[in-house]
Amino acid sequence: MQTLPKTARWWVSSLVAIALSGCSFDPVIAERIEKLPPEDPAGPSALHRPGQPCVDCHSAYEGAKPEFAMAGTLYTQNPDLTLKGVPGVFVTIFDSAGGTSKACTNAAGNFFVTKEDLQGVADYAFPLTVQVGSRYMNSLVGRERSCAGCHVLANEERIAQDPSVDKATGQGRSSAGAILISADEIPDSERCGPAPVVTATVTGAGGAAGAGGAAGTGGAGTGGSGGDATSAATTSVSASSTGATSGGGGGAGGAGGAP
Fold first, then answer.
1. Span 5-51, pLDDT tens digits
2. How far apart are CA 85 and CA 105, in angstroms?
């Protein structure tokens, strides 16, 4: 029986020891982290790195805190086709054991569920079903915790490999691209957080003209003009409100002419 040389036996025993020690190096995740763009100059925050695979770092693997069970970014498209994060929308996650969790998108469109948010449950039971606004994801989430792991945005490498990639959304043969949602797909019941406010100008009917002055020898006085009908109204984008704003009251009547 032939025995391995001493050096070979050492390498074999070392590799076995590493395997038994639970070495968790993942070349796929390591490569994705390596390709991430530089950090925001302002530093890490809940608003940083929208559209990037959050859980690659916020995990036991990389150690960023808090540890996420699920995370991603919601977008809408501007008229010029650029992407914009959508704030104040619930993302509901249903797991295979009947568990449900909700997360609210922040100002960057980011949402996340931490491991602590699962409240006594160690982890999700995969696969997962995801609801955003009134829409449900077409496919199940098999194991990927970062939405951006599958919903990959456009970048130079992807476009070079696949010229069909949509340069705005990232949609192509290898990815569904950004998670897009429009305002009409977000019912009030699926809105959350401090809703952004916009200022709208609402115009109502003018006030009635003032009564004429008392008639004298010089003739009747002229009635005052109606009040201004325009006023500024502040409304939340999370609720639709319509209706006219009343105009001001009419001016006082003119004085009667001298006898």
1. 544 444 444 444 444 445 578 898 899 899 899 998 888 999 999 99
2. 9
